[in-house]
């Protein structure tokens, strides 16, 4: 049975970790591997990101939904992951609606709009991570995966363990984070599918 696995990664065009995501997606579409991967740079299936008024809180709510529907979450950690702040600018987490504004997702050219969230509440123990917060998108995904007790797989975009790359919110996961890449017998850098397969419980 194929498992649906959510991928969380830095999708920056120039300095992100798309190379790892590309390999994961390749594995998810071939006839050899047994895992389906969700490429969150595309935010699949009728995404709210297509709405011109999509806000960061809308995206975070969708991330929760996709993580809840997944068997496991792979977090790709690169050398810039710890410094990424996209998604942190929600002032509604601490201010009244009338004092808040934000830029719709990928609509910076249109400037700020008033916050559209009229009522907020503190999530309960059994609720999703609240989508009104000052977490980065990457941290939000991690906190949601933890809260929902998903299998968490952390891979470095490297051939070595790069413990210094782990963000502070991943503290305590140093022992389980592993390199994504390995060198083949022919000296070529390839993704280590064996590690992913083992972490997903196939071995």
Throw out a few tags for this protein:
203 residues; alpha/beta; Rossmann fold; 4 helices
Describe the fold and architecture:
The chain contains four helices and nine strands. The chain has helices at 18-29, 56-68, 137-147, 193-199, and strands at 3-8, 35-39, 72-77, 101-102, 113-114, 151-156, 178-179, 181-183, 189-191. The strands form three sheets. A five-stranded parallel sheet has the order 2-1-3-6-7, with helices on both faces. Strands 4-5 form a two-stranded antiparallel ribbon. A two-stranded antiparallel ribbon has the order 8-9. Strand 8 (181-183) and strand 9 form a beta hairpin. The longest helix has 13 residues, at 56-68. The chain is elongated and about 60 Å long.
Largest sheet: 5 strands, parallel
Query: Which class in CATH terms?
Result: Alpha Beta
Q: What coarse outline follows from CA principal-axis ratios?
A: elongated
Task: Quote the beta fraction.
Answer: 15-25%
Query: Termini distance?
Result: 14 Å
Quaternary organisation: single chain
- Structure annotation, total helices: 4
Reported by name, the CATH topology is: Rossmann fold
Number of spatially distinct domains:
1
In short:
With 203 residues, the protein is an alpha/beta fold. Helices cover 21% and strands 17% of the residues.
């Amino acid at each position: 049975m194929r498992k649906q696995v959510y991928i969380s990664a830095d999708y920056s065009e120039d300095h992100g970790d798309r190379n790892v995501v590309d390999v994961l997606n390749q594995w998810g579409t071939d006839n050899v591997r047994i895992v389906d991967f969700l490429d969150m740079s595309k935010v699949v299936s009728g995404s709210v990101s297509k709405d011109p008024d999509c806000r960061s809180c809308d995206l975070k709510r969708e991330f929760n939904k996709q993580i809840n529907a997944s068997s496991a979450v792979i977090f790709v950690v690169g050398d810039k992951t710890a410094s990424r702040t996209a998604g942190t600018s929600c002032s509604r987490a601490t201010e009244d609606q009338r004092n808040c504004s934000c830029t719709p997702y990928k609509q910076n050219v249109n400037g700020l709009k008033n916050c559209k969230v009229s009522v907020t509440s503190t999530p309960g123990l059994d609720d999703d991570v609240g989508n009104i917060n000052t977490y980065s998108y990457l941290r939000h995904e991690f906190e949601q995966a933890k809260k929902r007790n998903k299998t968490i797989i952390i891979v470095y975009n490297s051939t070595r363990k790069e413990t210094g790359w782990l963000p502070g919110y991943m503290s305590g996961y140093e022992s389980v984070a592993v390199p994504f890449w390995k060198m083949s017998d022919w000296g070529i850098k390839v993704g280590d599918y064996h590690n992913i397969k083992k972490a997903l419980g196939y071995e």
